[in-house]
Automatic annotation (TrEMBL):
Role of this protein: Required for maturation of urease via the functional incorporation of the urease nickel metallocenter.
Name listed for the protein in its UniProt record: Urease accessory protein UreD
Species the sequence originates in: Streptomyces kaempferi
Stored InterPro entries: UreD
UniProt-listed Pfam families: UreD (PF01774)
Compartments in which it is found: Cytoplasm
Quaternary structure, from the entry: UreD, UreF and UreG form a complex that acts as a GTP-hydrolysis-dependent molecular chaperone, activating the urease apoprotein by helping to assemble the nickel containing metallocenter of UreC. The UreE protein probably delivers the nickel.
Family to which the UniProt record says this protein belongs: Belongs to the UreD family.
Length: 252
């Protein structure tokens, strides 16, 4: 920790253990990010990210890195929502997620929501790199403001690359100081919870799910590769989770 903010990185590495399961040779956290091994499910290793202190606050720099090797299966969740808060140190906080999955590896990245509290300023980047033959389920949920309060400034960028080829690269900025129109009918339409679900499966190469609506404020969009993006809006976090869970179940 410094007067300029907290710097912390958590690292997770999953490898096939040679006995039909998945080992975790690297499971390391710093300061506010504590990855904890939980009970395995079949051949899948499971890790829970536990917040050991408040944050990210102003000027903090957090990062989580996860690598899944060939033949390994990893499920990562979090014990509670992450809340971006204003801090004594002025300036933008950053939270970087860097995920890598080898051919034949599988990653389920399913953390709890990120909440942008009033007065906070957070930039989130999620960079995902997959090798051909990798599998991925990636969920991202963001809530603008706690109950009864206005949101902080939140900028989020999501990038997906498969075999070095970019399938998705998008950015959205919300809250005070964001470009005009973010809360208008062309973007959030007054909703305060937004989420995305990325699903990558090799079998989509031959049988790509079709584009379709999921109710009034959610849609399935095929990408230029064996991947689909589900985008959803909702009035609150509970209803957003229901929409994304239903979408995930629809893919079997």
């Amino acid at each position: 920790m410094t007067t300029a903010g907290v710097r912390a990185t958590a690292r997770i590495e999953a490898r096939a253990d040679g006995r039909g399961g998945t080992s975790l040779p690297v499971l390391d956290g710093e300061g506010p990010i504590a990855p904890r091994r939980t009970r395995a499910h079949g051949d899948e290793a499971r890790v829970m990210l536990v917040g050991a202190m408040s944050g990210p606050l102003g000027n903090d720099r957090f990062a989580v890195e996860a690598t899944v090797a060939e033949g390994a299966r990893l499920h990562v969740g979090s014990a509670a929502a992450t809340i971006a808060l204003p801090g004594q140190a002025k300036g933008e906080a950053r939270y970087d997620v860097r995920l890598r999955v080898a051919a034949g590896g599988e990653l389920h990245w399913l953390p709890e929501q990120l909440i942008s509290a009033n007065g906070s300023d957070l930039h989130v980047t999620s960079g995902i790199g997959l090798e051909p033959g990798a599998r991925l389920v990636f969920r991202e949920e963001q809530v603008l403001g706690r109950v009864g309060e206005q949101p902080g400034r939140l900028t989020s960028r999501l990038t997906l690359r498969l075999g070095g080829r970019t399938l998705l690269d998008q950015e959205l900025s919300c809250g005070p100081g964001a470009p005009g129109g973010w809360d208008g009918p062309a973007v959030l339409g007054g909703h305060r919870a937004l989420g995305q679900l990325l699903i990558v499966r090799p079998e989509f190469e031959k049988d790509m799910p079709r584009a379709r609506l999921l109710g009034e404020c959610a849609a399935v969009n095929p990408l230029a590769g064996p991947a689909v993006l589900v985008s959803a809006l909702a009035p609150d976090a509970l209803r957003l989770r229901r929409v994304l869970d239903e979408a995930l179940r629809s893919f079997g």
